[in-house]
Amino acid sequence: MTAPQRLTDRKREAIIQAAIAEFRANGFEVTSMDKIAATAGVSKRTVYNHFPSKEELFAEILNQLWARISAEMREPYCADKPLREQLRQMLLAKLQMMADDNFLGLARVAIAATIHSPERAQNMVARMGEREEGLTVWIRAAVADGRLKPVDPEFAAHQVQGLLKSFGFWPQISMGQPPLDAEMQNTVVESALDMFLGCYQL
């Protein structure tokens, strides 16, 4: 990805990076738009020109994070490739993303922010729900091709991702465990593949 060339794009990116640093260091409630502006080296007015509120700025950070995860997992379904091989790529990408320090830091901030405001949580979930994950799309295609049992693609995608998160996300978020190393990532993915394909593959 090339660095934004236009000044306004560079300022927007500086604001987002400053906000990420501030949210991670201080949490959502304590972080102010004044502090974000100071960290970004721009005026408070410039921050508000790009983002009308702290909620909007935080939502944009989460959207970018979500877009990155979705892109990592957008493996097009291929009728002539083994299902396990295709699925392994997506699940490994998801686990590697969840091992990213920036991702985990922001996820902690997001969870803390939404605990304090259920309304904010609903708004964030609604925004994220607007994007259909690549895994859901892939499962739908595999079902349509007669290679997986008829199953609700969203349910099945949620199910298999739950297997990953129980090892590679929730222990790190809630108990401060270190991210999974490459060997453990492979172990978790192979186990999830065994369970998913054992249940749904025709």
Automatic annotation (TrEMBL):
It holds the Pfam family TetR_N. It comes from the Bacteria. SUPFAM superfamilies: Homeodomain-like (SSF46689), Tetracyclin repressor-like, C-terminal domain (SSF48498). Residues 9-69 form the HTH tetR-type domain. The keyword DNA-binding applies. InterPro entries: DNA-bd_HTH_TetR-type_CS, Homeodomain-like_sf, HTH-type_TetR-like_transc_reg, HTH_TetR, Tet_transcr_reg_TetR-rel_C_sf, TetR_C_Proteobacteria. This is TetR/AcrR family transcriptional regulator. It comes from Pseudomonas rustica. The lineage of its organism: Bacteria, Pseudomonadati, Pseudomonadota, Gammaproteobacteria, Pseudomonadales.
